[in-house]
Amino acid sequence: MDFTNTEYYTNRELSWVRFNERVLSEAQDPEIELFERLKFLSITASNLDEFFMVRVASLKDMVHAGYTKKDIAGLKPEGQLKMLNSVLHDFVEQQYRTYHELAQECRAEHLVMVEHHEDLTAEEAEFVDRYFIDHVYPVLTPMAVDSSRPFPLIKNKSLNICALLSKKGKEKAKHEFATVQVPSVLSRLVPLPSRNGETRILRLEEVIERNISQLFLNYDVLGASPFQIMRNADLTIEEEEAEDLLKEIEKQIKRRQWGEAIRLEVESGIDKRLLKILRSELHISEEDIYEIAGPLDLTFLMKVYGLEGFEKYKRKSRAPQEVPQIPAGSDIFEAIRKGDILLHHPYQSFTPVVDFIRQAARDPKVLAIKQTLYRVSGNSPIVAALAEAAENGKQVSVLVELKARFDEENNIVWARKLEQAGCHVIYGLVGLKTHCKIALVVRMEEDGIRRYVHLGTGNYNDSTAKLYTDLGLLTCAEPMGEDATAVFNMLSGYSEPLQWNKLALAPLWLKKRLLKLIQRETRNARQGRQSGIKAKMNSLCDPDVIAALYEASAAGVKVDLIVRGICCLKTGIKGVSDNIHVYSIVGDYLEHGRIFIFENDCEPEVYLASADWMPRNLERRVEIMFPVENAEARERVLHIVKEQFADTVKKHELLPDGTYRKKKVSKSERFSCQDAFMAEAREYAKKGQGKKNRDNRRFIPMEHEGGTQ
């Protein structure tokens, strides 16, 4: 049977849109707190912006270049753009229907988001006019367009107001065009004087539009309207030809602001003359124009979420819990020597990871620290600890991936600071992104050199570690230490190990290893042995892996997958994917961990990884997959996966027609794995705090009503 038949695959871009629809469904769920729903709607807008800047832009580049190769589902780039045009316009309409419904609910709860400046009361109008003069007017720079002043460069994602002008007293004068950028240095939310206990806010662009005539005193304003453009932000870097990768990336980042315009958003009802000018000057096609029935750029709703006084409409904050094996102030190296430690973020604190580097920086026995950094926070304690280590005389090597999309500027800053502190900094590898998450500490102990390793599924980012679900492993097992040393030797030099003890690395070995593991399950099924595959990841679109899963399913292997985002695999194809079930969990935390479990004839093998099952991860990035062999840690990972499949609140099932469905259950059957994991983390922390005998550290999962089955 031909498992590569394009009819068996879903287009990657369409699958992504369906993922964003699942995020939107959270904004539409009346059982979720009102402000949490506003947040989910804001996330859909942010997701969509990045999708246009990268994925749609990439397809347009292919069309311009005459690229006609078909994708996994048999579509050429031009056909994909045509399909997306219809789907994305429909999605934006869904977004704004949801926005207006939520705005109505907010109004009922005494939060009024005033839509238009025409809706202001006389008192509010007077306040807004004074606010404009005192706070906004001095910051604005109106840009006229005439024979001496060409159409200005409109920055990517900037919000602007365009105006059509006519010289006062000259009825037949030529109409003039002008534009003004809504300043990002000012808050987009302008609080209005309270009235009848209501909180009333107006968006900054409405303040400017109301007073725009004051920017053009000798002209009549015939029409004014906000607009926003999205540009191609996918960097094209000729790494082989770049003499200095850091400087080349800095140059490309600046170009990102002025890339090809790929989407124009305008307010519905915009003066057609203004729209004609924008379309002509921005060289944008009709299908790339989005006329919006509401405020442009819904990411402002994240600011609304942050308003004080509405805590009862938000989910109660859940603090990450202490890891019982590593209580605050303890010696982390001593704790690791007692046995591997599994970390489950954000339910468990990220502090042990920070302490791992921080203690190493200050420990006189530590000789060297080596680490990869892909995305870090704006004020990273990890980077501070690495710099401190170098200043303390440790040998510190850091690979900072400069090509981490939309984090390039941040990473350039950190790379320079680390270099200034005396660290040896590597700027990634030519042609590859280094996406693996690994840290190695080399320590001189009484019995000789010992290597301590942290491996993770997520970034060394203390901020996102509170929002993303990830797993990490702290170990000093010698085979892992040897492999970690080999990884860094490979990254910093020309060493390419002939074999590995435990780790599997992309782009050379990981995909082969995965395919062999899937093929082993296929053989076991054909030979009547126990077989099965359970896996969790962000995305699944590698054609070779999907074909292998189809073959496994056809042989009788039960394949259960949790794929948060893109999934190009189709379920329910007779004789091909009958035995495959795919789910997606979209909840308060972003599901980010990668977990792979292979039944192996009743001797399950458990792996964690930094890689999704995508061509870019398996073939164009440096990634690491590592086994979980410690008995307690394995039990916990198996338990985590079991609970995720048992979820009845946030889990969507992929149907054979490509759509996703949430199963309707009774109140007694409701079970949220994310809530359960937080409860377990609290219980686990309490047990650790209460057990001062320290002998029995075995993890015991809690029983949940309507949960584990």
Look at the helices and sheets and give the structural class.
alpha/beta
Shape: globular
CATH class of the largest domain: Alpha Beta
Task: Provide the CATH superfamily of the largest domain.
Answer: Polyphosphate kinase middle domain
Assembly state of the chains shown: single chain
Q: CATH topology of the largest domain, which one?
A: polyphosphate kinase like
CATH architecture of the largest domain: 2-Layer Sandwich
Number of domains: 3
The largest sheet, given as strand count, sense and whether it forms a barrel, is:
10 strands, mixed
The parts where pLDDT drops under 50 for at least 5 residues are: 237-243, 692-709
Count of DSSP-assigned helices: 18
Termini distance?
36 Å
Would you write up a description of this structure?
The chain is α/β, with parallel strands linked by helices and 709 residues long. It is built from 18 helices and 27 strands. The two termini are 36 Å apart. Residues 237-243 and 692-709 have low confidence and may be disordered.
